[in-house]
Amino acid sequence: MKNRVIIMVLVFLISNQIFSQERYLTKEGYISFFSHTLVEDIKADNYQVLSVVDKKTGEIAIQLLMKSFMFKKALMQEHFNESYVESYKYPKATFKGYIMNFSELDSLNSTAEIKGILSMHGKEKEVSTICKVEIVEEQINLSGNFMVEVADFDIKIPIVVRNNIAKTIKVNFDLQHKPYKNN
Amino acid sequence: MNNIEALKTKYFKILLAGLTLIIIGLFFVINLYNKPFKDVKNSKAEFVISAQELINDFQVDENLANKKYVDKLIQVKGEIVDISITKGNSSITLKDINGFSSIICHMLPEDNLNSLKLKKGDFVHVKGMCTGYLLDIIMVRCILINDNLNEK
Predict the structure, then answer these.
(1) pTM score, whole prediction
(2) Can you tell me where the transmembrane regions are (chain B) (predicted)?
(3) CA pair distance A124, A153, nearest whole angstrom
(4) Could you give the domains of chain A?
């Protein structure tokens, strides 16, 4: 499975070099999540999100490392990785989907629907959201947010801290893709 | 009368002991809650390695490399290919000779300014926590090690 993924990525990248005009990529995308409860607010930021957009088809693939989420408190980060999302078992979260009607978007500030499958903690779930799309000559910027149900991903929260962690988590994203170039 | 006094003192002692226990308990809980992150600057790196070696290890066997390096404090030496800023946080990208992969080091705020003083082509030592591998190796909470800067 792992090898297949690597081969897919390789094929993807090699084809990239041939059609380099079409693929836009960022290795330093930003995704954060936010949990609000009466007890406390928890926020974590990930500044190292990998995301690739195909300008022709509007296809989008996002990948991130769970361990790259940075929390304000070390203990939160530890619990998140060790007990809740079990990063040692499921180190990555991915999203594969499409920006709908992407080829028809042309204005500087438009909105579009993104639809796809979010995989995390060994579970898959279809998500969709309306996001802001900015297509500048050398850049494709996507930003927006969507809600995720903790229960959908089989993430178990111990009773002791059940009141500290929201059942629905808000995910923010800001991805600024540039044309893929081989350095 | 004496009996009641003695009883009062006894209850008082129990109450005092109880309160002390609660305070100590609270102290521990608060301490645990505020447990600090690993002090990158003053902790010794578990691995001191070149960018190329680290990239090779991940490309040969990602699982094995994950077990070896992830969550460990690593000091990497390499040539800078890119310096960037995302939402006020700087990142330094260290090079791979083959140019296919690289190491992206997300810097701690305290080294933001120092990172910006660097330029492409500089050789640096970066110390930080490794979090894994996507197309590149990812490191977070990184700081610059000042000695041996620009040494080829």
Answers:
(1) 0.83
(2) 12-33
(3) 7
(4) 25-179 (2.40.128.110)
